[in-house]
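Data's thin. Show one?
=====
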Amino acid sequence: MMDTLVRLFPPPPPLLLPTKISQLFHASSPPCSFPKPHYTGKRFSRVQSSKYGNFLDLKPESTPEVLDFDLPRLDPSSRSRVDVIIIGTGPAGLRLAEQVSQYGIKVCCVDPSPLSMWPNNYGVWVDEFESLELESCLDKTWPMACVHIDDNKTKYLDRPYGRVSRKKLKKLLMERCLSNGVKFHKAKVWKIEHKEFESLIVCDDGNELKASLVVDASGFASSFIEYDKPRNHGYQIAHGILAEVEGHPFDLDKMVLMDWRDSHLGNEPYLRTGNSRFPTFLYAMPFDSNLVFLEETSLVSRPVLSYMEIKKRMVARLRHLGIRVKRILEVEKCVVPMGGPLPRIPQSVMAIGGTSGIVHPSTGYMVARTMALAPVLAEAIAECLGSTRMIRGKSLHERAWNGLWTTERRCVRQYYSFGMETLLKLDLNGSRRFFDAFFDLDPYYWQGFLSSRLSLRELALLSLSLFGHASFPSRFDIVSKCPVPFVKMISNLALETM
């Protein structure tokens, strides 16, 4: 959704709906398996066809773009060894390559299509990219965002929001990589083998490459990162389109962060019943009066909500809003695992991006956080490989993993995972009450929460303030539905700080 995604998952299979109702908010590795989805409608239930529903039959008209760079290739036949191999050239991989290579460390990025444009739309808060001096990579900004709680209440957020220009960001990171001497190898990684002080990757072109450290930045679906706990993720799923429309009702100076209204389902009883239990919202970026990015999103569910259900709800919503799609320029289909355990720390393969656990467990935000944490990881790597001592092997793996996941960051993530577990238990009315109270908080707290900037102490103060701002029904939700996730969080915090 709101940023999110380094690599796309395949959508869940569009199975038939059963008879009974059951972001916050985008690879070179094999696809991962998905849990069985929720299905929330009646068998063979269908949204009434109309001119407003025809967009599902439209094909995206844009063609995949490729950057024009003369990439310096690593010559595998030379048997030359690099210091760091990074698998994947998504935002995470290129950002880390750019940061590590500036220390004079030899880096090689391995990807089957290193110049291809990233497929996802990324949305960020403008101040996040300004703090990273990446604001030039935003192609559109809105001075405000809004959240429609219901038909009678809207929250206006005085915080500028921006859409990342994928071309500008990738071009900037690629230029910096080339300037720092990063090499590239065009292939897919099949296997990684480890020795005491070096690792070897085996590629699908038959070549083998060696390095002191391998970093997996290939996305959520990677099989190279190991876990020692069950991966009980929540899932954010969304269907989005960048579309030319005849018109739309959105203010051009505001992006719609969340629209929880469900009046569009008034004539769709099965969809409305499902939405009341497992709600979705609209996320919208209006570029002009005829161009808009629209995305129907399930914030978090477990198991993952049916992709077909998401599309049906979007059809009904656009029809209700009177939005007629003339052309589709891009289609975005994404599933983002949220929360769950961190990878085993340490291990022989380092990770960054979706596979490293840095996706915000309560919101799905990731791109700005990845841009901010890559320099942290790069510094930890440089302290080992950039020093005269050349710290390698287990000591390198420990310093790299613990540099990214300090005790404080692990504890903060436990709190965010507690937030996700709470959101999983809320129906539509509960979600409305929650966000009504959340966006009434002091901006320091809600902005810090969404941008992963708060300390554990500040998160505790946020919780107290949130309870104070909440309505009585919302307080009841918190008291009745949060004890189990809360006890789990306290237990995990105790383990992290031992």
